[in-house]
Design brief:
Blueprint: E1 2-4, H1 11-21, E2 25-26, H2 34-43, H3 50-64, E3 69-73, H4 84-94, E4 100-104, H5 110-120, H6 126-153, H7 162-176, H8 180-195, E5 207-212, H9 214-218, H10 226-232, E6 236-239, H11 243-251, H12 260-268, H13 280-292, E7 297-303, H14 307-323, E8 327-332, H15 338-361
Parallel strand pairs: 1-2, 1-3, 3-4, 5-6, 5-7, 7-8
Bound molecules: iron/sulfur cluster.
Iron/sulfur cluster binds near residues 81, 303, 306 and 309.
């Protein structure tokens, strides 16, 4: 079995080496690129959202490279994601590919995920599969933490691109860990890597909250490296959506971290009382939270045709008016131009800077 899983941010870094150690012949697809998107777009229904197209493109690339089994999360819920795998399987079969599709029945269920690990690896003991699954989760949390450190250091770095090198080094170091002990050691090394970055600790950069649909937020290709563009402008990013938080809300591997979904529900309550799919409740709730925490503004990103985030965007407009708080919503699909994106981000950052100066003067 040559197993492939479509990319989603740093997720593949968290599981690839661990699963290889347990006998899985992993064949990760190439990082998403224009070729991936073209393949996905050409073979997807027109109304499909961007994550569907990028996932499908990644699957085609992997099958062309020799993979014969695809692992894809399934599930239920008010968002279309739940039936992606089934539709993608039909499209790929109609294109003539021969392969097996393994759908995780319910990515919210611990026994379902542990069962998937036993199905694909040489681990047969349930307890062992459980510890391996938790190791992947903790590794994912370490990768997210390294990324948030990068978001903090980048706008304060003194030597150009020193924090970028630190971040790539951190991802490489964590990626190699295949046991709890190795992960612990790699984390110590990561802390040292970032400590060595020369930073202006007194500098107070502009802070922008980033919210939206989880795939476009965490997959740099899907958002056209939008976070990197902000960081290069000297802006600090405060992300409200992390894959490890999404996983922690379901599997509680970070016992001291509050359930982000429940927290967001409390903040969102005056505006949105029920989760309407995707990350809509987080987008609404955390806009209220960020506005009260002194974050200078929020950029909300979503794929074109994403129903849950469209609901959130409409409500966030109201929050922006009610609280006199800057919110910019950006939509991504295969037709978005990079120049257009750059111009809109620059205009928004410019507005935030002027606003901050005005507050200081008054
Ligand atoms: S949340 Fe939106 S973009 Fe994401 S899978 Fe669901 S419908 Fe598609």
């Amino acid at each position: 079995m040559k197993l492939t899983v479509p990319h989603m941010g740093l997720l593949s870094v968290a599981y690839t080496e661990i699963l290889r150690k347990h006998g899985v012949d992993m064949m990760p697809p190439p990082r998403p690129s224009v070729n991936t998107l073209n393949l996905g777009t050409r073979n997807s229904p027109e109304f499909a959202c961007l994550p569907f197209k990028i996932n499908l493109g990644n699957m085609i690339e992997s099958l062309d490279n020799g993979a014969d089994t695809i692992l894809m999360p399934g599930g239920s819920g008010p968002c279309r994601f739940g039936y992606y795998g089934v539709v993608q399987e039909q499209i790929l079969k109609s294109l003539g590919y021969e392969f097996n599709m393994t759908l995780t029945d319910n990515p919210d269920s611990l026994s379902g995920m542990v069962g998937t690990i036993r199905d694909i690896s040489d681990i047969k003991d349930k307890k062992h599969a459980f510890t391996v699954f938790y190791l992947i989760l903790i590794k994912m949390a370490a990768l997210d933490k390294a990324q948030s450190m990068y978001h903090w250091y980048k706008p304060r770095e003194i030597n150009r691109n020193e924090s970028d090198k630190a971040y790539s080094g951190a991802v490489r170091t964590i990626g190699k860990a295949t046991t709890y002990r190795e992960l612990y050691r790699s984390w110590k090394e990561v802390k040292k890597i970032f400590r060595d970055v020369k930073a202006d600790m007194k500098h107070k950069p502009l802070k922008v909250g980033v919210l939206g649909e989880i795939f476009v937020v965490i997959e740099p290709f899907a958002n056209m490296m939008f976070e990197k563009k902000l960081l290069d402008m000297g802006v600090e990013i405060v992300r409200g959506v992390w894959l490890s938080d999404w996983l922690n809300d379901r599997f509680r591997f970070k016992p001291f971290r509050k359930n982000q979904n429940k927290l967001a529900k409390k903040w969102a309550y005056p505006y949105l009382k029920y989760a309407s799919g995707g990350e809509s409740i987080e987008s609404v709730g955390k806009t209220v939270k960020f506005s009260r925490e002194g974050i200078d503004g929020v950029i909300h990103i979503m794929p074109f045709t994403c129903m849950p985030e469209l609901v959130a965007a409409t409500i966030m407009n109201r929050i922006s008016t009610d609280m006199n708080y800057p919110v910019l919503s950006l939509t991504f699909d295969e037709n978005v131009s990079e120049v257009n994106l750059q111009t809109r981000i620059e205009a928004f950052v410019d507005l935030l800077e002027r606003r901050k100066k005005c507050w200081k003067v008054s």
